[in-house]
Structure prediction request, 167 residues.
Amino acid sequence: MSNPTNQVLTRYSGNKHDSNSVINLMFLCNGLSKLDNHLIYPNWRLLSDHASLNIVIPIVEEHINSKKCSIIKDSKEESTFIKDLTTSIRNINIFNMSDITSLDRAVNDFANTVENAWEKNLKIINIIKYSKSWWDESCSRNLESYRLLKSLENWRQFQRTVKNIKW
Prediction:
């Protein structure tokens, strides 16, 4: 429970026979000293019979990524990425791997190859509040088809695709 910093009434009766009182509740996170008191503003109630209870909640600035790197499933980039990895695995020299140095070199070569293939084929995706994790290339293709032809059948095909992908 929060403690008011100014002890004033919070309910003002419109009936002169009823008394004014303190009946409001405020639920906050238990145990946080920054949230253990509030202010009451009786002058802000206007036509209401309750005074406003106010608290300042500190909000820590936080960085939220607005972009992510990805390789889209079943895309041309994914095929190229897999092909590059397969080729690099085949080309790793595993003969005469008799000491830790040669093993480290092979592992580092593979790691560098994966990183280079990833960098070459990734797609930077902007994350917005309307981003959908289920959206894929077929959705984009069918939506583009509808936008070009503006036919009802293309719209229905787009809707079917979205429904199937979501399912």
The chain has a mean pLDDT of 82. The CA atoms of residues 28 and 35 lie 7 Å apart.
